[in-house]
Every structure is written in structure tokens, then in C-alpha cells.
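[SOLVED] Predicted holo structure with 2-acetamido-2-deoxy-beta-D-glucopyranose

Edit: marking solved, answer below. Original request kept for reference. I posted the sequence and ligand SMILES and asked for the 3D complex as C-alpha cells.
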Amino acid sequence: MAIALICTLLLLLSQLCNASDAITQLKPLSDDGSTLVSKDGTFELGFFSPRSSGNRYIGVWYKNIPVRTVVWVANRDNPIRNKSSTNTMVISQDGNLVLFSQNETLVWSANATRKVSNPIVQLLDTGNLVIREANEENVFLWQSFDFPCDTLLSGMKFGRDLRTGLNRRLTSWKTWDDPSSGDFSMEVELGGNPDIVMWKGKVEYFRTGPYTGNMFSGVYGPTTNPLYDYKFVNNKDEVYFQYTLKNSSVITIIVMNQTLYLRQRVTWIPEAESWTIYQSLPRDSCDVYNTCGANGNCVIAGSPICQCLDGFVPKSSQQWNAMNWRQGCVRSGEWKCGVKNKDGFRKFSGMKLPDTTHSWVNGSMTLEECKAKCLNDCSCTAYSNLDNTGGGTGCSIWVGDLYDLRVIESGQDLYVRIATSDAGADVKHGKGKKVIVVVSVIASLVFVMLLAFCIYMTKEKCQGKIKTKLRTEDKNEGRQEDLELPFFDLATVVTATNNFSTENKLGEGGFGPVYKGTLIDGQEIAIKRLSRSSGQGLKEFRNEVILCAKLQHRNLVKVLGYCIEQEEKMLLYEYMPNKSLDLIIFGKFSRMFCFSTAWCLWKEGNPEQLVDACLANSCNVFEVVRCIQIGLLCLQHHPSDRPNMTQVVVMLTSENALPEPKEPGFLIRRVSKEGDHSSNRQTTSINEKLLSLEVLPCIQMAYKHGVKRCRTISNGILFPVVCSSFCCSVVGGIPTVPCARQCV
Ligand SMILES: *[C@@H]1O[C@H](CO)[C@@H](O)[C@H](O)[C@H]1NC(C)=O
Ligand SMILES: *[C@@H]1O[C@H](CO)[C@@H](O)[C@H](O)[C@H]1NC(C)=O
Ligand SMILES: *[C@@H]1O[C@H](CO)[C@@H](O)[C@H](O)[C@H]1NC(C)=O
Ligand SMILES: *[C@@H]1O[C@H](CO)[C@@H](O)[C@H](O)[C@H]1NC(C)=O
Ligand SMILES: *[C@@H]1O[C@H](CO)[C@@H](O)[C@H](O)[C@H]1NC(C)=O
Ligand SMILES: *[C@@H]1O[C@H](CO)[C@@H](O)[C@H](O)[C@H]1NC(C)=O
């Protein structure tokens, strides 16, 4: 008995001492608990069964991490059914690495092609399992790094060897306890301009966008980080991505997560004894491949998120309006190749570059040469710099439709071919808020100049329904910017409103009365006539013209034009017949009712009750209440109490304390009750519609941010969810149907 015990102990000891990092022809590895351990003890290789499964696999995992993390599996698609010490991994006669199950069936073979005289199989400190000649340390005849599973380790090449045709791609585990190949994979896609593509089965699911010198066009993130360095190598022999740890004591890996359909970078936190997610892709619905279809542009803060590029219209507006964007957009018809004024480019800044499958590149061309090259080819639809570093170099050209466009922080400039009559303005998407403010300032100045100009010019010059262009010079580009808003002359408006007759009066807002009108062509319009006595009128008017021109939104009343003549300042809106806007505002989802609710709940101190139940779990209540408060501030009766756009932007982007909102305007029956306010409005009751016209831009900002702040996680992707009560309350009665439709 004692002898048997000693023998067992000795056997165990010998096994422990022999915890080697290599297999030789004389020393195979059996399924009896023995393992290989890399020299520095980081990685371990052996037989294992995942969780509840009884199947046996050969795998590599981190030795010192308590949560077993398998980073590579040899026979992932050929499991051994039974645990048995007769399962063995051996070096075969011809120097290949093979795996036998108990019945001596060959289960797996490394299929190394070159023969060696004295082969050993070694597990390196990097986690790489290699076959090599015993006396040649750095020449590998085969290596597991060339056959990744679902995990990318530091130092692994992810991508193609063009000389051998090897494609090192990642494929997820099928389930948590089944390492066989799932349907979520990722690989380097070749082409004129390679990028990395994720697949969900055979469906393209995400692409990183081309590498632009120090990052991938569509992967937002810091180019330097404390954890790892990375590079993308693209030459005639190889195309691959690789990252290397800056400090090998930090453990971070890239894993394909089939459950969530996310490629995750996870980092081991020793103190917490768990992995934390450092980065996930795709991040949002705009990241999902081609969400907005051909020539559609995805703007995650937008509502809806898909918009056609300027110069393009939805292929099927019915589908598009039903939020089925896959059919994408087509040219609006103006563009004619090579025809003067009908052919040119518009610059879109902050863009993820389109799918490069149908693209062409030249690393030495300048941007000007690139433009010329594109102009000379009628199939060319867009161009950009190839490399974005050092001010931009090289040329990338796209032919045919543009796919998978989105606005992204730190995105690139993309020049899209469109009719030049609209090609003037540079659209800077990525920095929307700042741009709106800057544009407003520039445009305001220009507008003042235009006003002066118009007053100076003789009356005839301003007569008739002419289009007035506000032109600014963009210093950097030397380009011209056109802000177009049609100008209507006073006579047209007088005719349309039957000389501002009382029957045509819809009501009165904070700045003056609003009339209904009918243009000669039969179009119905609403006209807001700024009261002459309002000292602030001109400023607000200017802002409103500019903002309305910039912030057109399908949930908002469209501004059709303006009129300035003599003392008159007027804005012309599309008229909302009773059966659309009014129904929604005053009918089923009464405004009055909803607002009232909003204001009452606010007064009671329970504004969070406005949040629809379906939003409850996906919203940060604090942020929603903040949006509601900003919405209420926008609706205060006196224009001077309402925040201006810059203030709204600050309020939405900071956590500063907000002022307490005063009672919304339309709750006050008679303005005269408010005191000595302007004399020509004392008896008119406030009309809800009019108020909404005045506060739209302000509300719209709150609304957009409300959307941005309320997202729900569905299928691993973030979808904006807006529910009727939220829209109704925050937006103060802007149509809620499209919002409600998104609330599933
Ligand atoms: C041997 O084992 C393999 C894998 O476990 C199995 O597929 C095969 O049917 C077995 N063969 C025999 C003859 O039992
Ligand atoms: C082991 O394999 C044999 C046949 O290959 C099978 O009959 C037996 O049930 C298996 N044992 C277990 C525990 O699965
Ligand atoms: C090795 O070759 C066999 C036969 O061609 C094939 O079935 C098997 O999948 C290959 N093994 C690996 C690991 O590629
Ligand atoms: C590497 O990381 C460890 C643990 O965080 C730290 O103690 C060590 O100083 C780091 N080494 C370097 C060279 O930064
Ligand atoms: C995928 O991510 C979820 C959530 O982080 C995690 O619970 C699960 O284990 C992950 N699956 C894999 C295969 O890593
Ligand atoms: C790339 O552009 C340069 C400069 O225009 C030209 O000399 C060169 O031939 C081009 N290369 C290719 C492959 O077209």
C-alpha cells in the first residue's frame, strides 16, 4: 500500500517536473491530465472539455487566469467524443502533428507539408504552437498562428499571405460550450484598397473601411493607446493587421462573440478576476453594413438615421419613409457627366469612406490629379485621399454606387460627384453642432449684408419670385457656399393672404400674427408676419431664416421662403392641413393634453413619468428629464426667456444646472394678463401652432438629443427608440407617428 502511494507520488512528481513546453516523437501528449506549459508560464496546452460538453478538444489557454479562456482549438470541428487516456497528440512518422482518438482514428492533422528529420512541437510564450526542426529555433514548418480560431492574440498576423494564398481569418465559436465554427467571422478583404470585413453567415455585416495611414476609416478610436500598438501591412506579399502589447503583463485579446455578434476587445482585470470589454464592433446601427443603402448616409444622431447624400433622392420614397432604407438613393437627375455646371463635386467631411470593393487607388497622385482622373471617367462617383496622414496623400477613386456611408468622428473628406449647381457647400457632418453655430454666425453676417443690399437696391430688383443666394467665401477651400431660401415679394404675399384678411388669420404668436395663404399655383402656405413693434424681430427673424434653412427635418414644418420688404419681415411655411399635423397635435395625441401633462408633472416634480414604459430600461432618466427641462425652457412664453441655440447646445452637452422653466406660452389665455406686453397682441389668444413655429429649431435640438440619449439594445445593436409620449412631451407636439413607429 505504502509502496503504491510512493509510486503514485513519484509518478505525479515526475509529471510535474516534466511540465514541458514541447512534444517530441518519443513523448506524445495524452488525455490524462498532462499539459504543455510555455517557458514563462503564460500559456498552457492540453485536452479539455468546454463547460457542459463532454467532447474532448486540444486547446491553448492562459495558464494563470482563473476563468479558463481558450484562445485556440486544434480540432474545433472534429471533437473526440470520449475522455480517455488513449486520446493522444503525437508527431507522426513523417513529422506531422496529428491527433488520435481512443479508437486510433485520426481526428485531426496539422497537415504540415514540409518534412523534417528531427521534429519537435513547442508551445511558445506568445501562445503560438509551432512545428520546427529541433535545432532550428526560429524556422517554423507550421504554426497555430496561421490557423486562428475566434481569438486574435498579440503578435498574430490577421490577414492574407499573397504568396501562399493563406487567409488567416477569425471565426466565432458556435456557442459558449461548442468551439465548432459559428457563422460570425472576420477577414481581410482584398481589392484595390483592402479593408476588414465581418460576416454574419454569407451576409456582409460590418466593414472597418480602408486603412488611411494610422487608422481604419470607419473605426473611431484613439490612434495611440496605453495598451497596444497596431499596424496594417499592405504590400505585394502580404496584407495583414497586427497588434502588439506594449506591456506583456497586461492581457488583452480580440474575440469574435457569436452570442452578441460583436467583435470585442477584452482586457483581463486581475483585481476583479474578470474580463472587461475595451472595444466592441459594430458599435451602433450605422456601423451595420450598408444600413442606408446605396448613396445613403447614416447619421446616428439623425432622426431617422438615414439620409440621402445631397444630390440624391430615395429610390422609393414609399419604402424610404417606411424606414426601409436598403434600396438606397439615386441621383436626383440633374447630374450630367462632363457637362458644364452639371458636373462637379461636393466635399463631405467626417465620413467613413465607402465600400472599397469597386475602387481604384494610386499612392502617388495628388488630390488635384485625383479629381481630374475622376472627372475624366463618367463611371467615377467619388474620390478621396488614400492616406490621411500628413495632410493627405494619394488617390482613392470609387466607381458606381457608394455603399456603407456614415458620418463618424475623426472621419475623412470624401468628394462626391454631383451636379455643380448644388456642389458649392461643403458639408461638414462630423462636427455638426459646432458647424451649425459657425454657419449661423457667418450666415447671420451675410444676411445683414444682404438686407442692407436689398434695401439699397431699387425696389424692382427685389420684386418677383426670385431666388436669392447668400454667398460666402470659405477661406480654406476658396469655394463658394450657397445658402438658398426662396425670396417672395410683398405683392405675392398680399395676394396670397387676401391682404392679410382676418379670415386668413390663423392666430398670433409671440412675435406676431400668422396667416394662411394660397399662392397663385394653388399651394397653401402659412405666413408668419413679424410684428413691427417687436424690437427683437429682426434678430430672431434672421436666426430663424438661417436655422430653418439649415435644419430642415421631416418632422418639422418646412420653411418655404421669406419676405423682407419695407417694414415687413415674413416667413413662409408649408401649410399643415387639419388632417396631418393638427390631427396629431390636437387630435388623438392632443398637445394640450400631453403638455399639460408635461407641465403639470414638472410642477409636481415627477417629470420622469413622461417617459414611455418602453423606454424605461434604455434611458438614463437623468438625461431624459434634462431634455424635458430644456424642451420646457424652449416653450416659455416670452422669447427673451427662451434659450438661444448656442445656449441649448451648451445645455445639452454639459451637466450645468438649468434654469427653472416658466409656464409654457400657450397655457396663458390672454397675453394681457402677463402685464404690459406689446399693445397689438393684448386680446389675442395664443395659438398652439404658432408657438411651435417659433420654438421649432430649439425644440428640434432637444428632440435630436433626446433620441440620441434614448437607445435600446436589441440584438447587440443600438437602435434609437423614441416613443410617442416622449416625443410629444419633449418636442411639444411635433408629429409623433414616425417616432411611435420606431418603438417596437
Ligand atoms: C472512432 O472515433 C471517432 C471519433 O470519436 C468516431 O467518429 C468513429 O466512428 C469511431 N470509429 C469506430 C470504428 O468506432
Ligand atoms: C465511449 O465511446 C463508446 C464507443 O465509441 C461508447 O459506447 C461509450 O458510450 C462512450 N462512453 C462515454 C462515457 O461516452
Ligand atoms: C488536413 O487535410 C485533410 C485532408 O485534406 C482535411 O480534411 C483537414 O481539414 C486538414 N486539416 C486542417 C487542420 O486543415
Ligand atoms: C507593466 O505593467 C505592470 C502591471 O500593470 C507594471 O507593474 C509595470 O510597471 C509595467 N511595465 C512597464 C514597462 O510599463
Ligand atoms: C459574449 O459576450 C457576453 C457578454 O459580454 C458574454 O457573456 C459571453 O460569454 C461572450 N461570449 C463569448 C463566446 O465570448
Ligand atoms: C500613379 O500616379 C502617378 C502620378 O500621376 C503616375 O506617374 C503613375 O503611373 C500612377 N501609377 C499607376 C499604377 O497608375
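OP edit: Residues 264 and 421 are 45 Å apart (CA to CA). Thanks to everyone who chimed in.
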